[in-house]
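Hello again,

I reread your note about wanting to compare the complex against the isolated chains. To keep things tidy I'm splitting this into two emails, and this first one only covers the full assembly. Below are the input lines as submitted, including protein chains and any nucleic acid or small-molecule components. They are followed by the predicted structure of everything together. The single-chain runs will come separately.
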Amino acid sequence: MTTVADILKFVETLAPRAMKMDWDNVGLLCGSRKTPVTKVLVALDPFEHVCQEAAAWGAELIVTHHPMIFRPLPNVTDETSIGRGIMTLIRSNISAINAHTNLDQAPGGVNDELAKRLALVNVQVLNPCGTTENGESWGLLRAGEVPEQPLDAFLNRVNTLLHCEGLRYENGGNPVRKVCVGGGSCADGMPEAIAAGCDTFVTADVKYNQFWDAHDLGLNLIDAGHFYTENPIVPILAEKIAAAFPEVEVKVSESHRDCMKFY
Amino acid sequence: MTTVADILKFVETLAPRAMKMDWDNVGLLCGSRKTPVTKVLVALDPFEHVCQEAAAWGAELIVTHHPMIFRPLPNVTDETSIGRGIMTLIRSNISAINAHTNLDQAPGGVNDELAKRLALVNVQVLNPCGTTENGESWGLLRAGEVPEQPLDAFLNRVNTLLHCEGLRYENGGNPVRKVCVGGGSCADGMPEAIAAGCDTFVTADVKYNQFWDAHDLGLNLIDAGHFYTENPIVPILAEKIAAAFPEVEVKVSESHRDCMKFY
Amino acid sequence: MTTVADILKFVETLAPRAMKMDWDNVGLLCGSRKTPVTKVLVALDPFEHVCQEAAAWGAELIVTHHPMIFRPLPNVTDETSIGRGIMTLIRSNISAINAHTNLDQAPGGVNDELAKRLALVNVQVLNPCGTTENGESWGLLRAGEVPEQPLDAFLNRVNTLLHCEGLRYENGGNPVRKVCVGGGSCADGMPEAIAAGCDTFVTADVKYNQFWDAHDLGLNLIDAGHFYTENPIVPILAEKIAAAFPEVEVKVSESHRDCMKFY
Amino acid sequence: MTTVADILKFVETLAPRAMKMDWDNVGLLCGSRKTPVTKVLVALDPFEHVCQEAAAWGAELIVTHHPMIFRPLPNVTDETSIGRGIMTLIRSNISAINAHTNLDQAPGGVNDELAKRLALVNVQVLNPCGTTENGESWGLLRAGEVPEQPLDAFLNRVNTLLHCEGLRYENGGNPVRKVCVGGGSCADGMPEAIAAGCDTFVTADVKYNQFWDAHDLGLNLIDAGHFYTENPIVPILAEKIAAAFPEVEVKVSESHRDCMKFY
Amino acid sequence: MTTVADILKFVETLAPRAMKMDWDNVGLLCGSRKTPVTKVLVALDPFEHVCQEAAAWGAELIVTHHPMIFRPLPNVTDETSIGRGIMTLIRSNISAINAHTNLDQAPGGVNDELAKRLALVNVQVLNPCGTTENGESWGLLRAGEVPEQPLDAFLNRVNTLLHCEGLRYENGGNPVRKVCVGGGSCADGMPEAIAAGCDTFVTADVKYNQFWDAHDLGLNLIDAGHFYTENPIVPILAEKIAAAFPEVEVKVSESHRDCMKFY
Amino acid sequence: MTTVADILKFVETLAPRAMKMDWDNVGLLCGSRKTPVTKVLVALDPFEHVCQEAAAWGAELIVTHHPMIFRPLPNVTDETSIGRGIMTLIRSNISAINAHTNLDQAPGGVNDELAKRLALVNVQVLNPCGTTENGESWGLLRAGEVPEQPLDAFLNRVNTLLHCEGLRYENGGNPVRKVCVGGGSCADGMPEAIAAGCDTFVTADVKYNQFWDAHDLGLNLIDAGHFYTENPIVPILAEKIAAAFPEVEVKVSESHRDCMKFY
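Full-complex prediction:
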C-alpha cells in the first residue's frame, strides 16, 4: 500500500533535499512516514484552513511548498495558528510533507513553472548552483525572452497568465525583452538580473526601497504577488503525484486563495 | 544669516536625536553646518532626482525623512545612485539633513500626522518609549478611533485621504472601530495593535506571511504604501521650517512621487 | 468548571514565571488553556510513557517539572520520542504544563523539598536571586545543617531518604555537618557551596572532572541521581493541586521511574 | 641521552597531532623539550597527586592522556590544583607531555584498547576521520561484536574486565550482540552507534537525559566510568615507551585511582 | 611576618581591583599568597630578565604594572619567554603580583604621576569612571595646564623630565597650554582630549594614522614611549610599599630598561 | 581619450584585485570611471592636503596606496578630514583610485620595492599566497640577504636609503645577514621571519610589546616608519603610469611628507 514514505521519496526525486538552502526545513514535518495514504491534498501553504480542508476531505497527507514549521516551535497549542494546524493534522492522522527551496531551485520546479506560465523562451538558470545527473542546471532564478513589447503589454500578460487580481510595478523605462523570474521574495536578485542582461524582473513581496533600486537600475520591477508567482507549481505537483501513484486520489486545495486583496 | 546649523537645530527641536532608534543615521549627513541658507527643499527621500531638483532650484539645503546614507558607504562614485546624489549635492554646495526614526516617534511627527490625516480620534501612543519635558508621550505606533464602519468604507477613506493610487489589504473579518497606524514598514507591531484592542492596522511594505498573520489574528491589515503613509509629514515639516525661518524660502519637492504603480 | 488555565494559574502562584531562568521554557507547552479538566497526572518528566499513562487513565492534563519541549522543535513526527509524546497528548486531547527552573528556585519548590527530605535544619537560600512579596528569599541552591556525622552515615541517610538504588560519591575527607543541595545538574555550584561553608554537596549528573574538583576542594560530593533529587517535589505538587481543586482527580504517575540502574 | 623531545616524538608517532580535535591541547604542556630523561611516570591524568608521585620518585617526565592545561590559565598559583601541580613539576624539573584526543582516535589508542579489553571481535572504526599511511582507519568510536548474551551477562563482563567497582546502565530491551565503545564522555555518539547497528553502547559521564534517549532508542547504555574506560591505555602506553627506550625506567602511576566511589 | 597577601592587600588599597578594566588580569598571578616576604623587586614589566634579577637578588616577590600573564596560557614551557619567566619564579619560590589598569586609573596612579612629572597644574580626570570614598575622581586620562610655550620648548621638557632618549611627535600648529596625558597606548583618547580643550596629548605606541588624525584635529601629539610614560610610577610604588612595610627590603629593578632605541 | 577606467585597468594589471586582503577597499573609491584624464597625481595617501594639491594642479585623478575610504562612511561633511577630502575632489571633478594590499602583495609592489631600495639580494616571498600567470610568487613579506654587517651599519644604511629622519629599533644581539621586510604595520609577521632564518626585520608602527617580543626572539627589529617603508613604491607607480600613458601628465605629490617628526 502507498505510504507517506513512498510519496515523500517521489517528491524528493523531483526536488532533491540537496537542492535546499541551508536554513530551510523540508521533508516530513508532521505525522508518520508509515501512514498508508489514499488521499493527498496539495497546496502552496499548510495554513490552518488547509489542514481543516484536508481533515474534512479525509486526506492522510498534505503536500505543500511552504513548511508547516519554519522557525522551530517552542510549543504546540491552540494559541497559535501553527499549533492549531498541527493539532488538526494529528487528530485526523494526517501527515505533512513539503519541498520548499529545493522545489524553487529544482529543474521543473517553482521557477521553471513560473517562466513557463509567462511563456518565456530560451529560459536559463541564472548563476547555477549545480548540475543534476541528467546534466540539467539548477539554481534559484530563471531568465528568458519574450517578443519585445511595451511594459504595459507585459503587465497585462502577467496579470492574465498568473490570474492575479492586480500588480504593483515600477517602470524602468525600457521595453520588455528579457525577463528574470523568481517566485516569492527574490528582489535581492536584481543585480544578478541586470548582470544577465534582463530588462524586467517578476517577483513578489517587493519593498519601497527595492522599487527605487530598480528605478535607479533602469529595470522594470513587477510584484505579481507571492501566491500568484509560486502557486503555478501546485497543480503541476499534484499532477505528477497523481501520475506516479494512480491508486491515490490527489487534489489541489479548494480553500486556499491569497488572503491579500487590492482596493 | 540663517545657516544649515540653525535649521538642523530647529528640526531637532521637533524630532530630538534622543528619540531615534539605535541603528539609525540622522542629522547632517552631507555638506556643512556653516553654509548660509536661502532656499530649502523638503522631501520624503533624498533620492537622486530630488538632489537634482534642489540643484536646479538653487537650494542650499535639503531636509528629508529618510537618510542620505543608511548603510555606511565604501565609496562615492557615479556608479551608485547614492554616489550620484551626493556628488550632485556637493557640486552645488547643498547640504543634506534628515530626521528619520526620531521624526517617526516624536509627538507631532510622522505617525501623529498619519493618524490626523485619517481623522482618528482619542489618539494614543502605543507602548511609549518616554515622555517629553511637556509631558507628551513619544514612541513608534499610534492608535485611535473612527466611527464604526465596514472595512470597505474605511478602505475608501484611507485611499482618498492619503491620495493613494491603490491599496493592498486583508480582511480580518471585523468592522473598523479602533485603528493602529505606523507609517513605513511597521507590520511587526501587529501583536501590539491587538493588545491595544485595535481591529485594523494601517502600514506599508507588508509581506505575504504578514497578511496571513493578520488573517490568523482577525485583524484588518492595510498596506497603504510606504510613500503615502509617510509623505503627509513632508508639507507639515516644510510649513514649520518656513514659519520658523521667514527669511528662508521653503518648498516641498515637486519631482518626488512614488515610483511604484498599480496595474 | 476547572480548566487548564485555572491549574496553570495556580501552579504559577507556587512557581512564578518570573523565577525561571532566561533560557527555560515553562507554562502551557501543549494543548489548550480552555480544556476542562477532571483528571490531572503529575510527573517529573513528560516522557512518552507518561503521555501514554495519561491517555490510558483519561487525564486531560499532565503537570511536569521538565518541559515537554526544551529545544524548539523542527517537526512533530513519530520518529522522535518527543514527537510521539506530543501526538499521544493531542490525540487524547490532553494538555501539558510545566514549572521547571521556576519550581527549582521557588520557596517550597524542588530544592526546598530536597532539603526537607534530607532533614536539613537552618536551611537557607544560597546567593538569593530575589525576595517574594512575603519576604521569602528565592534562588537555586539551598544549604542546611545535619548533626555532625561520618560521610558513610550520611550516604546511608541520603540513600534511604531519597529511595535511591545507589549513590556515586567522592570523599572530601571531612565529616558531614553543613550540606548544600541542588536537585539535577548543579555541580557547577561547588564554589558557592564552599563559600557558604558547606562540607558536603548533594546533586546529580556529576562528571569525572567534577568529582576531582570536589576532591581538590575537600568537599564531599554525592551524586544521588537526577530523578531521585528532583522527584520529591512531585507528590508535593500533586497534593497542592489536589487541595486547591478538590473537584479534580490528581494522581502521581505510576509508570515513571528512573530508567537508570546500578550494577 | 634520551630527552623529553625524543619521547614526545615517539608518543606522537603512536598518536599523531593531526589526529587531535581542533579544541584540544596536546604535546609539551610543561617544562622543556631538552631535559634528559631517566624515569617516566605514565598516568591517565596529571592531577596534583600524580605530580607529587613523579617528584617523589625522581621522574623527569610525566606522560598522560588528559592535558595538564585544558582551559588556558590566567595564573599559576597555589590556589588551584592545576597551579599546585605545575609548581610541583617545575620545582622538580619535571616536564609534562600528553596525547588526548589524538590518542582516543589513533589506531591502537584509547578506544581500540577498550574494545580489546572487552574482547570485541570484528572491530571497526565508526565514521572514520581519515586513513593512516598504513591504510588503517582512525576516528573516535569503535564497534565490535560479542557472542549474543543477555545484558546482565555483559554487565558482569564489563565490570570484571575493566575492574570497575560498579556500573550505571539503562536496559534498552535487547540482548547484547554488537557493541559500540567510546572511552570518556561519548554518549553524544548514540545516533552513530544505532546507525551502525549496535544494540549496546559502553561509555561514561552519562547524564539523565542521555539514559532516557537510549531508552527511546532501544539501546543498552552502560556508564562504566570515565577512569575505567580510558585507563586501559595507560599500561599499554607505558609498555610501548619502555620498549622504545630501554635505557629509561617507565612506571605506571601507583597513586592514581578514580576518586569516585559507589555506595 | 609579612606575606605576599599583606603586600597584595596594600597594593590593592592604592589601586583597587574595582578600578581595573573588564578585560584585564591583575592581582596574584604566580606563586602563593602565604609566602613570607623579606625582599620585593618592583618593575614596570615582569619580563624574563626581571624574574632573573629577582631570583639573583633573593626576592620572594615581584610587583609590576604589566601582568605576568595577559592572554591565558596554554602551556608553561621554556619555549616562550613567559614560560621561562614563570619557571624562574617558581624555582626560586618567588610570587608575582601586579596592578595594571587599576593603577592607570587610580588617584595617585600611573597617569597622575605622569602629570606630576610633567609639572602639569590644575590636573583633572577626563571623563571620570567613578569617585572614591574620599571623594576623589578616578579614570584613565588626565588633563592639566602648563605655562604657554612653543611646542619645541615642551618637547624639550618632556624629553628631559621623563628621561626619554628621543620622542616622536606631530606638530598640531598650536602652542602648548593644556595637555592631556595617558601612559602607554592611549591615542584613542584624542577626541576626549579635544573635547576637554587640550592642545597637546602625551602618550605612546602611536601609529601612522593616529599622527595624521592629530594633524587633522590640530592637536600636538607626542609619543614619549610606553616605558617612559609609565615607568615614573615604579619608584613611587616602591616607596609606598617600603613605607608601609619597613621590615621589608624594597628595590626598583636595576636591569629593566626599555629595549627600544633611537637611531 | 584616456579615462579613469583606462588607468584603473592598468593599475590593476600591476596589482590585481585578486591579491587584496578580504577586509580591504581598493579600486575606484571616488568619482567616475568615465572622466577623461590629462593629469594624474600619485601619492601614498589621499589625505586632505593631497586632494587640495590635486585640485590646485588641475589633476583629474589621484592614484594612492591607502584608500580614500577605509571604514565605510556614515556621512560626507566638512567635519571630518575624509569628508573634506572627498568634497574637494568632487568639486574639482577629480576621481580617486587606489591599490592597497593588492600592491603590498604583488610582484614588483610595495614590498619588492622596499627590498630593492635596501639592496637585498636573493629576495624571496615569505609564505606565498599564490603564483601569477608568469610563475611569480606573490604574498605579503619579502626576505633577502645583505653582506654580513653589524646592526649599526645596517641602521645607517636603512636610514640613508629610505631617507628616514630617524629610526626606532631593538637590538636582537646578532649581526645582520638575512632581512625580512614588510612596509607599514607588519610586525605580526615576526614568527614567519624567524622561521625563514632572518636575523633582522624592517617594518613600522611597532609597539612596545613587539620590541620585547623581538628581544625574546633574538631578532633585530627596526621601525623605519610607515611612510618611509611604503613611499618608495610611489615614484615607481608614477613612472609606470607615465610610461603606459605618454599622453597623460603624471606627478608625484609635492606636498605629501610624513607629519611625524623625531625630537
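For quick reference: Chain D is about 35% helix and 25% strand.

B.
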